[in-house]
């Protein structure tokens, strides 16, 4: 009898996968790894952020005299709105995977659906965090934020908004079937969530029609909460609670819609 | 053992698979033979828990695919017809990640296995080349290698040798047989007759979402009327006098498609002169005569009434 082409000596027994939690982490790491495959994007976006901060924010803060330290206000808000924007990317990834058939492959892997969905959300959120950390560090250095508790609280705000927006993005990605409609819906939603908020402009300065929306934007919760932690060294419990609710609602919705699509909709 | 019990799958108003019943034995290579759109891929994806059956039951080693999808997925590895690989990754990373998800091998074992399988299919030197830059054949090899490296209990290959050159096809068949010899149950969906015949222990003929026949290639050919096939090409537009051939007891069936006439018969060599004489006497112009053993293509034609194209 001829020998095997692949000399599998160490584990000749047929293969079995690892635990569900290990697979969840692998799934999350897959999404995180996509970021490092194109490091130039992180570098170019960080440079764009530096320009935004030291040209636009610097200039406008000199024009805005009625609001004390508007530069600091803008800088923290810009980090929060950036993490929210990046978190939307997971929706594009999932939509693309479904269109290219890669999702079929992922669904054959021996990971339970629940862990699959949590892994994707976690990966998307952590990816957005990693992407935003350099910007956060720049702001912390420029504004001399040194209180570790305040920094941790602000990072928690960033993570919660990232996690929640990831859930929102997944919900849209699995609910809208047409590619063109998906692009438009997600772009408008991103615009509404990040711009109709108090992230970059104080509430009192917003036009009345944006004032009507801004208090309900999760980005407002995150930006105001992060600013309170970093600039006033106090915890915005209400803001954190609002963010936590946003995470629970949209991760739950995202997971439910995703699960339904995988188990009962297009793939049923 | 894998059992399909009146399994069906409906997409909107289209029945992709209908009342499909079949048993796949442990450690056999089952060839699913059928034209594109016959339902082969749908069958495999239902078994792999990607699609949920709309009727009937499918069980894998006693586990219902709807009730125990996670346990079923742990046993199965699927190589898709169109490579489903992350284009931005190289072959090494694609396989390494696949093994992370499907096996509990440690890093050293995993990388060792990836290296062996890539060397075996001559892709080691291109291991870091992004798969979207690879040729169709190379990408197909990477797709097949996922399952070859995984060594699952149930290995599924959808058109495993599409885009591959002849030496690569033969190598892939060898590696698939080795997988079976190690204890895997292997399912190969194909629309290539020679692949089904040379690779499979048994062949299931699938057409329009239904199981048409299942047996060993030899048995299927043996069951086909007569065991021999006479192919005649007659003059264009000429009406063929079917009854003048069916008068012979050795002739089992006659079918005509345009100017090509297929005669299923036994004892063809002895009967051939008589057939030619009879037809010539009836004024039929015979352009060519070809007597051959039954092939799976004839079996498919016999069961479905049309050629596999």
Give a verbal description of the structure.
The complex is a heterodimer of chains A (268) and B (309). Chain A is mostly helical and 268 residues long. Chain A has helices at residues 20-37, 39-63, 70-87, 89-100, 102-108, 113-143, 148-175, 179-195, 208-211, 218-232, 237-263. Chain A has one domain. Chain A has eleven helices and no strands. In chain A, helix 2 (39-63) packs across helix 6, helix 3 (70-87) crosses helix 10 and helix 7 (148-175) packs parallel to helix 11. Chain B folds into two domains: 2-217, P-loop containing nucleotide triphosphate hydrolases (Rossmann fold, 3-Layer(aba) Sandwich), CATH 3.40.50; 225-293, ACT domain (Alpha-Beta Plaits). Chain B contains eleven helices and 14 strands. A six-stranded mixed sheet of chain B has the order 6-7-8-3-9-10, with helices on both faces. A four-stranded antiparallel sheet of chain B has the order 2-1-4-5. The longest helix of chain B has 16 residues, at 166-181. The interface between A and B is large, with 36 and 49 residues.
How far apart, in Å, are the first and last alpha carbons of chain B? 31 Å
Number of domains of chain A: 1
Using the CA coordinates, give the radius of gyration of chain A.
Answer: 21 Å
Mean pLDDT of chain A: 85
- Strand arrangement within the widest β-sheet of chain B reads 6-7-8-3-9-10
What is the rounded distance between the termini of chain A? 45 Å
Strand composition percent of chain B:
25-35%
Annotated CATH homologous superfamily of the largest domain in chain B: P-loop containing nucleotide triphosphate hydrolases
**Principal-axis shape of chain B:** elongated
Q: What structural category characterises the helix and strand content of chain B? A: alpha/beta
Let me know the number of strands of chain A: 0
Secondary structure category of chain A: mainly alpha
User: Number of folding domains of chain B?
Assistant: 2
* Number of helical regions of chain B: 11
Query: Which residues of chain B sit in consecutive blocks of at least 5 with pLDDT less than 50?
Result: none
Global mean pLDDT of chain B: 90
The main sheet of chain B comes to: 6 strands, mixed
């Amino acid at each position: 009898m001829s020998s095997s082409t692949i000399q599998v000596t160490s584990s000749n027994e047929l293969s079995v996968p690892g635990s569900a939690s290990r697979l969840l982490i692998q799934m999350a790491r897959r999404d995180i790894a996509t970021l490092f495959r194109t490091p130039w994007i992180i570098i170019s976006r960080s440079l764009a952020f530096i320009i935004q901060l030291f040209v636009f924010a610097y200039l406008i803060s000199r024009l805005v005299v009625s609001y004390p330290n508007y530069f600091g206000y803008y800088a923290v808000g810009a980090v929060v709105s950036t993490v929210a924007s990046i978190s939307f990317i997971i929706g594009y990834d999932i939509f693309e995977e479904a269109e290219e058939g890669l999702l079929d492959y992922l669904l054959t892997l021996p990971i339970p659906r629940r862990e699959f969905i949590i892994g994707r959300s976690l990966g998307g959120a952590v990816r957005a965090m990693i992407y935003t950390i350099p910007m956060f560090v720049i702001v912390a250095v420029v504004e001399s934020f040194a209180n570790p508790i305040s920094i941790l609280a602000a990072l928690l705000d960033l993570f919660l908004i990232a996690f929640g927006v990831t859930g929102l993005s997944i919900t849209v990605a699995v609910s809208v079937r047409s590619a063109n409609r998906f692009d438009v819906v997600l772009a408008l939603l991103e615009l509404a969530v990040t711009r109709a908020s108090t992230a970059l402009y104080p509430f009192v300065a917003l036009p009345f029609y944006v004032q009507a929306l801004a208090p309900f934007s999760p980005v407002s919760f995150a930006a105001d909460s992060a600013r309170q932690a970093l600039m006033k060294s106090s915890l915005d419990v209400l803001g954190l609670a609002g963010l936590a609710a946003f995470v629970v609602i949209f991760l739950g919705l995202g997971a439910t819609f995703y699960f339904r699509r995988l188990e009962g909709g297009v793939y049923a | 053992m894998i059992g399909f019990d009146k399994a069906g799958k409906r997409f909107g108003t289209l029945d992709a698979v209908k009342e499909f019943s079949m048993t796949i034995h442990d450690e056999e290579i089952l060839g699913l033979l059928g034209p594109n759109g016959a339902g082969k891929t749908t069958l495999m994806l239902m078994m792999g828990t990607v699609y949920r059956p709309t009727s009937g039951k499918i069980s894998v080693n006693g586990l219902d695919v709807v009730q125990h999808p996670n346990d079923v997925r742990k046993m199965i590895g699927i190589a898709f017809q169109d490579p489903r690989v992350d284009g931005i990754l190289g072959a090494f990373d694609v396989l390494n990640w696949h093994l992370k998800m499907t096996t509990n091998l440690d890093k050293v074992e995993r990388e060792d296995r990836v290296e062996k399988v890539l060397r075996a299919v001559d892709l080691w030197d291109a291991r870091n080349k992004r798969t979207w830059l690879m040729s169709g054949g190379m990408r197909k090899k990477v797709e097949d290698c996922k399952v070859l490296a995984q060594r699952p209990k149930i290995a599924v290959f959808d058109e495993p040798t599409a885009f591959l050159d002849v030496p690569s096809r033969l190598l892939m068949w060898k590696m698939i047989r080795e997988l079976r010899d190690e204890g895997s149950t292997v399912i190969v969906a194909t629309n290539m007759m020679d692949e089904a015949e040379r690779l499979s222990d048994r062949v299931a003929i699938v057409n329009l979402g239904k199981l048409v026949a299942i047996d060993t290639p030899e048995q299927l050919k043996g069951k086909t009327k007569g065991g021999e096939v006479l192919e005649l090409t007659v003059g264009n537009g000429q009406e063929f006098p079917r009854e003048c051939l069916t008068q012979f007891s050795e002739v089992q069936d006659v079918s005509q498609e345009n100017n090509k006439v297929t005669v299923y018969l036994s004892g063809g060599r002895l009967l051939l002169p008589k057939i030619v004489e009879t037809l010539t006497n009836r004024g039929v112009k015979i352009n060519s005569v070809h007597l051959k053993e039954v092939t799976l293509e004839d079996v498919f034609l016999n069961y479905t009434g049309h050629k596999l194209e």
